[in-house]
Amino acid sequence: MRLLAVGREPLELNTLVAAVTQGSDGAVASFLGVVRNHNAGRSVRYLEYEGYEPLAVKIFDRIAGEARDRWPGVRIAIHHRLGRLQIGEASVAIAAASPHRADAFAACRYAIERVKQIAPIWKHEFFDGGDVWIEGAVANPDDEQARAEAERVACA
Amino acid sequence: MRVTVRLFARLRDIAGAPELAREIGPDATIGSVWRDLARDFPELAPYARSISTAVNADYARMDRAVRDGDEVAFLPPVSGG
Which residues neighbour A35 within 8 Å (Cβ) at sequence distance 6 or greater? Predict the structure, then answer.
């Protein structure tokens, strides 16, 4: 299984956990982002995710590399789903394995923060009464201040 | 010379197409491709300060030169996760 992927199939966290875990690991931390039924005071009906797929996979590879540099020995898997997702469905799954739990937790949190900062993926929100493209972070992988902020949050 | 422009999310909605073939001059950069595009689709102009840009599926800066056959992507602020 590819550790880093973007696709339309439902996400399976267990597969990611199994793929990153080795005999030397003492911990695997995992994260599932799921579609919420409310946002900014709106009743959300569903989301449609769009992505620039080849660049997204390269960016996941960059994020995994940053995490390995910061927490040596960590192994990370990141899968993001595209297309129409209903309330409660998983949009992103991350697993981070490490010999020690502190590094696994930190690397997992770091990875989702970086995905939100720099992965070329967009939410189109369909809510009661209309629809809107969600525009969050200006993506710049070389913005060291943003990267340091993700690390700070991961270690908090 | 010609490049393929890829547009995503709201930028795609504004232009009405995910992909456009655009003629470029000999000294074209990502920035000049963007300015030509914003002239044809004025609603794009407010994004000048918030877009990220890529050439052939790698992030690149606005002053990067583009060549015949390149794929140039314009990305509004991202919202994955």
Answer: A44, A46, A47, A85, A86, A87, A88, A89, A91
Please give the ipTM for the structure prediction: 0.97
Chain A residues within 8 Å of chain B (Cβ atoms): 33, 49-52, 54-56, 58, 80, 91-92, 112, 115-124, 133-142
Residue A56 is part of a domain; what is its CATH number? 3.90.1170.40
Task: Please answer yes or no on whether A140 and B52 come within 8 Å at the CB atom.
Answer: yes
Scored b (16 or more CB within 10 A) or e, A23-60 reads: eebebbbbbebebeeeeeebebebbebbbbbbbbbbbb
Domains of chain B: 2-75 (3.10.20.30)
Domain that holds residue A52: 4-155
Q: Which residues of B touch A136 (CB under 8 A)?
A: 77-79
pLDDT tens digits, A33-64: 999 999 999 999 999 999 999 999 999 999 99
